[in-house]
């Protein structure tokens, strides 16, 4: 398609130009922009006291006046009679013929698209200006051209006054007089409002880009999307109050947020992309979730990630408790509400509410969740009803789901069917003994206690197991980490959560044996730590322990039990030094391949983030946006 006939109207009234600069600008429009070959009507709104003479090298009709609204009405009248479109340019812009071709194609892609406009680039940075917000154009957050290329070719909006507009012939003919307005922007804004009320929408071509002049004396923001004078805006709203709805529609457009996120995913050269680590699920206690998060930070601190600026978003109380800023000075630490735009967000634990998912969606182009386990949903009593809808949502709308074990993946998928478009990967936590043991602690002489791990949740089965073992071994001392005290002899209780990692390691390293009676786990870091210290660990039979053993080569022994008889027999044989049947280790490791550690865990997660970012699907992002909006989130 080639551009059809159109007339050209330029408003230079607000430009600080002398006569020579004005003449040069008109010459550039006609010669270098190519309008001399396609336009035979040129109207120019002049700055005060300047004049424009006919140009002998151009045979077309030249009109000029300082009366912006009057000249606009005249240009509209002549274009209507001649059945032509009208290109309106406000300020010292030099749109090319190529831009006009894109605009022509955009406005004629639908018979009810009446006005087309391009995007605008900053000559100094080549960044694309965002759409106006609350009547103001922000001075930051420009979209890169690389990001612009990922947006749909056109965007259909309500009326939007900009410094370059192509009005199709049918709209020109329907505009009518400018009435009470004296300026061209006022008259044009009235015309755009009338066109929309007749059913003609505005279309923005994301493939047409006009570069603003690099003259530092000009305010680039004002050039892009001119603001009406206060009196003109009041007049327009008095005539058509629904114009306020047009502004509100522009502000709530989904593509506004998408542009910000695409800009974060494709930052300017030499600027790193930003990765948000959502650690708001970390509590000011020692537990399995905090261990996973700290392990990830240990791994990230040991690898170079020059393409990422990593921001750790956490609660200030938890950050102080775990000393995040002191332990990881190379990372950026943030607290409170999430701010800014990110290329990707990674939540090291599964979310518990849709509000959390919506927050990450608003601030990051790619959302990835690390599934630890599905215990809370399965046991039912531990969480409220929001968990089910949240996990079903991420199974359908997340960009990526990572799992800390195949066992967790096999539990999650049948409960919350994952759509094929969601990327999935099992990324094991560290199974390297060096990450889970302290040589100084390991050198301590064994003591006389058997250590039990758990907490008060029923699936941990801690108190019933303790009762069985206390009855079966009446002379044995037991140390219990995680249960409330109960009246049993030779049992010492250690409250969980506030006990330091060093003390837990000491209890493990000096134990005669470790019992981990849980019915249901996602990984079982206490088991891994116990194996790292060479302990014999009794675990309830589960496919998880086969997986952990197969991917590790730790010095301890994993011994399974499946009822009280096999539990008592297994512990008795360990305490007596008799042979036991233990799980085979390292069967899933190829020759020469080391088990995963925190370093490789971090690298694999970063690689997964890169993969999800590479597979970004704008249509899926838009679907997620619309779904969350429909849910009022």
From TrEMBL:
Going by the UniProt record, its keywords in alphabetical order are:
Transferase
Q: Which Gene3D superfamilies match?
A: Glycogen Phosphorylase B
- Would I find Transferase among this entry's keywords? yes
What biological-process GO terms show up in the record?
lipopolysaccharide biosynthetic process
Any one GO MF annotation of this record: glycosyltransferase activity
The superkingdom listed in its UniProt entry is Bacteria
Keyword Signal attached: no
Q: Where is the Glycosyl transferase family domain?
A: 497-575
Its recorded name reads Glycosyltransferase domain-containing protein
Protein source organism: Variovorax paradoxus B4
């Amino acid at each position: 398609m080639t551009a059809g006939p159109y007339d050209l109207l330029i408003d230079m009234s607000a430009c600080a130009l002398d006569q020579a600069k004005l003449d040069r600008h008109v010459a550039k429009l006609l010669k270098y922009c190519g309008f001399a070959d396609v336009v035979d009507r040129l109207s120019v709104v002049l700055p005060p006291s300047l004049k424009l003479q006919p140009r002998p090298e151009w045979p077309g009709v030249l009109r000029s006046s300082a009366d912006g609204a009057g000249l606009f009405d005249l240009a509209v009248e002549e274009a209507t009679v001649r059945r032509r479109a009208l290109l309106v340019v406000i300020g010292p812009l030099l749109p090319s013929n190529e831009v006009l071709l894109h605009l022509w194609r955009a406005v004629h892609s639908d018979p009810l698209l009446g006005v087309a406009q391009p995007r605008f680039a900053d000559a100094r940075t080549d960044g694309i200006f965002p759409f106006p917000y609350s009547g103001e154009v922000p001075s930051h957050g420009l979209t890169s051209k690389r990001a612009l290329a990922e947006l749909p070719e056109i965007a259909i909006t309500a009326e939007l006054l900009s410094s370059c507009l192509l009005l199709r012939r049918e709209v020109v003919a329907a505009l009518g007089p400018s009435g009470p307005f004296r300026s061209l922007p006022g008259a044009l804004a009235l015309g755009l409002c009338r066109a929309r009320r007749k059913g003609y929408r505005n279309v923005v071509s994301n493939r047409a880009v006009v570069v603003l002049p690099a003259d530092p004396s000009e305010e680039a923001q004002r050039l892009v999307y001119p603001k009406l004078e206060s009196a003109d805006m009041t007049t327009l709203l008095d005539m058509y109050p629904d114009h306020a709805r047009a502004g509100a529609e522009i502000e709530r457009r989904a593509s506004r947020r998408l542009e910000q996120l695409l800009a974060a995913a494709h930052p300017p050269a030499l600027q790193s992309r930003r990765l948000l680590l959502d650690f708001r699920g970390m509590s000011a206690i020692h537990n399995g979730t905090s261990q996973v998060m700290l392990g990830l930070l240990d791994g990230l601190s040991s690898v170079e990630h020059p393409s990422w600026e990593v921001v750790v978003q956490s609660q200030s109380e938890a950050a102080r408790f775990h000393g995040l800023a002191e332990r990881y000075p190379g990372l950026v630490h943030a607290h409170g509400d999430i701010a800014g735009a990110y290329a990707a967000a990674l939540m090291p634990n599964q979310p518990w509410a849709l509000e959390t998912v919506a927050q990450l969606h608003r601030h990051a182009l790619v959302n990835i969740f690390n599934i630890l386990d599905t215990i809370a949903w399965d046991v039912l009593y531990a969480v409220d009803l929001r968990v089910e809808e949240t996990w079903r949502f991420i199974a359908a709308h997340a960009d990526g789901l990572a799992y800390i074990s195949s066992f967790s993946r096999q539990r999650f998928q049948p409960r919350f069917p994952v759509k094929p478009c969601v990327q999935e990967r099992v990324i094991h936590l560290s199974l390297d003994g060096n990450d889970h043991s302290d040589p100084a602690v390991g050198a301590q002489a064994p003591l006389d206690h058997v250590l039990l791990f758990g907490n008060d949740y029923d699936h941990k089965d801690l108190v019933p197991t303790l009762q069985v073992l206390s009855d079966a071994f009446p002379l044995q001392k037991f140390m219990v980490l995680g249960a409330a005290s109960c009246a049993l002899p030779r049992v010492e209780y250690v409250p969980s959560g506030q006990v330091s990692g060093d003390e837990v390691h000491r209890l493990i390293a000096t134990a005669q044996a470790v019992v981990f009676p849980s019915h249901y786990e996602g990984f079982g870091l206490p088991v891994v730590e116990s194996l790292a210290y060479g302990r014999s660990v009794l675990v309830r039979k589960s496919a998880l322990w086969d997986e952990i053993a197969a991917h590790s080569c730790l010095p301890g022994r994993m011994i399974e039990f499946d009822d009280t008889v096999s539990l008592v027999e297994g512990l008795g044989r360990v305490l007596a030094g008799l042979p036991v049947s233990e799980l085979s280790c390292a069967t899933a490791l190829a020759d020469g391949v080391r088990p995963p550690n925190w370093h490789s865990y971090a690298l694999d997660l970063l690689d997964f983030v890169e993969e999800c970012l590479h597979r970004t699907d704008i249509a899926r992002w838009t679907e997620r946006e619309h779904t969350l909006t429909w849910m009022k989130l």
